[in-house]
Amino acid sequence: MAVPEPERQLNDLLLQAEERLTRQSQANDEIKLKLVKRDEQLSAIRLELANNSVRHDETDRSLSISNANLQARDLELAERMAYSAAAALELTQRTAQLRESNEYLQYRTAELEKLNTELKSLMQQREDFVAALTHDLKNPLIAATKQLQFMLDGRVAPEEQNTLISQLLDSNKVMLRMVWNLLDVYRHEAGSLTPSPEPVEIGVLLKQCIADFSISLKEKQIALDMQIEQGLPPVHTDRILLRRVLINLIDNAIKFTPQEGSITITAWTADNKLYIAVEDSGYGMSEQQLTRLFQRFWQAQKGRANGLGSGLGLFLSKQIMTALGGTIACTSKLDQGTKFVVALKIDAGPA
């Protein structure tokens, strides 16, 4: 039987609505499925975030621990650097001290080497002095012994005996002066060269000194000129020690003055001082020789060639003048002679 049209249309509409509902239900199922999947994804994301948060916390803890370790290491490194800096500073200071010590040791070594060289030179000079002194004393004594033996044997004519005795006496005086100088040097070194001041007439003392060399002056035909200022006041000093100085200066002047030369002895006062000069026309000395003039055992080569000598006379004279509170100075030029000047205060004793 045929379905009426309205019912058929209604059925169609219902079918269409049912189809739409089915499709809508399917769409809703798909949406629900998508929502479930999204929820699952969100849950997975939340879980991942939670895991990440845990890992982040663990990382933070690790970083905190690492940071604490780094800080501890930084502190340890800073302490080590401070220790190293202090050690470097101490090393620098010790290096500077060692450098100073090394420089001082080098200075002391150089000083000791210099002193050792001077000591060796002095020892050599002393050996030379002993050899020269032995020679200078031995030869005149041998000669004097022979001459005296000749006199005892009657081999010297009576008219020649006085001359021979005078020569022996002059030779003995020279040797005695050498011995006196040597003894006075050792007295000075022992600290027992102490002046005994008294009033001394310089004019009288100079004439006494010249008298000791009368034979030597005559033998070498030396012209002696004495220029003593009139009215010289007495000088308060040690007569014996001053005489020793004057004897040494006059002896040197005669020794270094050639045959038929001249010696001038002058005495004068100025500025409350007494001056005595002994000047000769001898060989003179160079500037280099003048720097060594008052050294112990030193003697000019021509001095050794021209007579007896120990090299102590001028050294001793310098020490004596210092002990007397006076001075001694020398000027000289080669081939133009030499001049010694001693000076003493008039109104005071030795310093």
Structure report:
This protein has 351 residues and is α+β, with helices and mostly antiparallel strands. Among the domains are: 103-156; 176-345, Histidine kinase-like ATPase, C-terminal domain (Heat Shock Protein 90), CATH 3.30.565. The protein is 67% helix and 12% strand. It has a five-stranded mixed sheet. The chain has a two-stranded antiparallel ribbon with strand order 1-3. The longest helix has 148 residues, at 5-152. It is rod-shaped, with a radius of gyration of 60 Å. The relative contact order is 0.08.
What about the largest sheet? 5 strands, mixed
What share of residues is helical? 55-70%
Shape: rod-shaped
Q: By CATH's scheme, which homologous superfamily of the domain at 176-345 applies? A: Histidine kinase-like ATPase, C-terminal domain
Count the DSSP helices. 8
- Report strand order across the widest sheet: 2-4-5-7-6
Report the radius of gyration as a whole number of Å: 60 Å
CATH fold description of the domain at 176-345: Heat Shock Protein 90
Residues in β-strands, percent = 5-15%
Mean pLDDT: 81
Instruction: For the record, give the distance between the C-alpha atoms at the N and C termini, rounded to a whole number.
Output: 179 Å
Record field, number of beta strands: 7
Q: What is the level 1 CATH name of the domain at 176-345?
A: Alpha Beta
Q: Which residues form runs of ≥5 with pLDDT under 50?
A: 301-310
Give the class from helix and strand content and strand pairing.
Answer: alpha+beta
Taken in chain order, the helices and strands follow as HHEHHEEHEEHHHEE
Which architecture of the domain at 176-345 does the CATH hierarchy give at level 2?
Answer: 2-Layer Sandwich
